[in-house]
Amino acid sequence: MSSLNSTNIDYPTGPYSIGVGAIIESGGRILLVKINYGHKGWMLPGGYVRPYETIGDAVKREVLEEMIRV
Q1: CA-to-CA distance for 25 and 54, rounded, in angstroms?
Q2: What is the 3-state secondary structure (H, E, C) of 51-62?
Q3: Tens digits of per-residue pLDDT, 38-60?
Q4: Which of 22, 61, 62, 65 is deepest in the core (most CB within 10 A)?
Q5: Model pLDDT, residue 29
Q6: DSSP-assigned states of every residue in the chain
């Protein structure tokens, strides 16, 4: 895994890629991720599915990665 402070992202280069996202709601609030690079703004936690990774595992990993950056 790259440094959590890095803004370099390795995007898939194949003919297609699979992405995941999550809506996490608790007590009427929704978890959003603030983007401080590129197109700045807010988004749902998510990202790309790695080769041989299940969709469920990818969602868990991506949400955990976003929460670690807080």
Answers
A1: 23
A2: CCCCHHHHHHHH
A3: 888 999 999 999 988 999 999 99
A4: 62
A5: 92
A6: ---TT--------SS---EEE---EETTEE--EEE-SSS-EEE-SEEEPPTT--HHHHHHHHHHHHHHT-
Side chain identity, residue 38:
G
pLDDT digits 0-9 by tens, 7-38 = 565 656 677 788 899 999 999 999 898 888 88
How is residue 63 written in tokens? 């949400």
Nearest partner of 21 among 57, 59, 67, 64, judged by Cα: 59
The first and second tokens of residue 65, run together, are 């990665």
Determine the length of the chain.
70
